[in-house]
Amino acid sequence: MPDHDSAPVAVAMSGGVDSSVVAGLLHRQGRRVIGMTMQLWNQRRLPELAPASPTGRCCSLDDVYDARQVAQHFGIPYYVVNFEDRFERDVVKPFIADYLAGRTPIPCTLCNNFVKFDQFLDMARGAGAEIIATGHYARIEHDPTNGRWQMLRSSDRAKDQTYFLFGLRQDQLARTQFPLGGFQKAEVRELARELGIATAEKPDSQEICFVPNGDYASFIDSYFKEQGIASDVTAGELVTTDGRVVGEHAGVHHFTVGQRRGLRVSAGEPLYVIETRPSERRVVIGRNEELLRSTMNVNNVNWISIDPPAEPIRAQVKIRNKHVAAPATIIPSSAPDRIEVHFDDAQRAVTPGQAAVFYDGDLVLGGGWIE
Amino acid sequence: MADRYYFDHNATTPVSPEVFQAMAPVLTEVFGNASSIHSFGQHARKLLDEARRDVAAMIGATAKEIVFTSGGTESDNTALFGFGKQGHVITTSVEHPAILHASAQLPSVTVVPVDANGVVDPDGIRRAIRPRTKLISVMHVNNELGVIQPIERIAEIAHQEGILFHSDGVQAPGKIAVDVKKLGADLYSISAHKIYGPKGIGAIYVRKGTALPPLLHGGPHENKLRAGTENVAGAVGFGRAAQWIIENGVTEAARLAALRDRLEQGILDRVPDAHVNGAGSPRVPNTSNIRFDGIDSEPLLIALDLRGFAVSSGSACSSGATEPSHVLAAIGLTREQARSSVRFSLGRSNDAGQVDALIDTVALVVAHLRKLAPAYA
Q: Is the ipTM of this complex over 0.95?
């Protein structure tokens, strides 16, 4: 295990307040801090998507300027590193493939699993750091009784980001610090002011970083255009759960389970997307009650804080970021990374491609992808 | 931080003590506008003219053929926009962005490729010539590889066809002897900060009789070829830097060649799967571009920097991140190979002790990086 207090630490700096405070806190503690910003995506690449909002962008020169200014303020070495190829390969392309396969992906989790806590961690280690620190709201603790690293929800429940971090393995947790896990967001802003960080009042980013304004469907259409792929490859029919064709749609990637907007179908009662069937190019719509599910299968399960259970266990299961974790029983299967979840009460809009994350109170047991 | 060693002299060099000494009184005392009639102006004009003679002497030109500019980029742009707007332009795939991006603004450009050693074939240039070809621009020394282009031969071909020849010579003076007459250049770009002069001043050699239209319009400065109040202090620094090269260039180049060989030999001996890019062609004595299979140059650069060694790779994009080099792509390296290459460029501050320390550290860091890369077998 690396000695966390003397080894150089690389802070992943986005230019936002949270990672800036992390750099400042560690620097104030006398740690050897290296600031690093990942260049993930070139916002000028898809010109028709020129960002209109000041937030929800990534890798804009403004953000790099902000991060650099903070690094200069603390007098720490600072580097921008090019992850554009890796980000496109491991996040953007799988993100698009998921949508076309009728799933609703979480690019932030893909980025955490395959870029930030994987290739970025490797790069930081290559550069001479032993560990990385990020501005995520989550806590990591070491259990001395079994030598296991555990993940816990952040003290600020509203900011908790453990839902996006379920994929972290023990070797990654051993080399990662989340210094903000014990703070409230308001305290972090206060710390930013106290540390003299010029961007202390910068608004939080809200959207998927590389998709301006959160319009992911337009992003996919623009990306297709750039790659010379027809964007209507999955355009087809809107059908009801009882098999009636009631309209047409421009592609399954415009829809996610539980969505009501943009259906343009008049009916006596509100209609929602129940599922998308890309192989049939169909989007199935129905009534709200038809969205309820009491079981689901979850694959690629990563157990963080406990060993993979051999017997059914009780947990609270969260099926999307804003979902309130619901009591359920987790039933292991013959495959170690695949489980079945039985909710005590049926849940609305269980969405393939989203993460299912299992909690025991604050403890993050693990998580996986909803089938 | 402990000692810091600078191995990035092709990016820029420090202002040398003698250059600083020459410039300091100009910045404070000789502040006159060189175009003014009074004694303040005349004093400044005298220094400017002396500097022009020194810069000219460094490259075998006459003083009247030297036009001061703000630097290499302006000199290159002056040549391209001066002659490239009406006709066809030929250049190469390994030019500096000051040529490549500027020529992309022109109506008709042919970019001639180079071979695996980074050298352009003069016959390839000849084949690209069209009836309307107005200008051929080929760099003298490549900044990333240190490769020397056969520009004498290319100038000859250009002149046979009545075409003007420009060369971006920013990386040449101080590394190899430059004689623009012998080379046959009509236009030749140089820069002060690559030769221990200040940033913000360069020059373009304009062979007598070449009717160069100005890039910047305004006052009648620089023989009406470059408007804008003359940067006298900069010119004086440039002149002093040129003088140093005239006096010490040959000795220093020989010293650097020995250091460069020591560096390459040391790295090739100590680090498995390292290759010198462009090794098969004539190169300047201070530059070494080395590829380390299986590693990414970004963490290597950072690790070296954190240990006090400044080197470089690729080209910086606007965010400051590194982009794979177009020069390495042009010599046929894969994106992966380009990403695993690093440029070491030596200069006056380096000695054998520093080179040995660099070899040790490179060997250490490359081994560490390869240990972290499971794909590397």
A: no
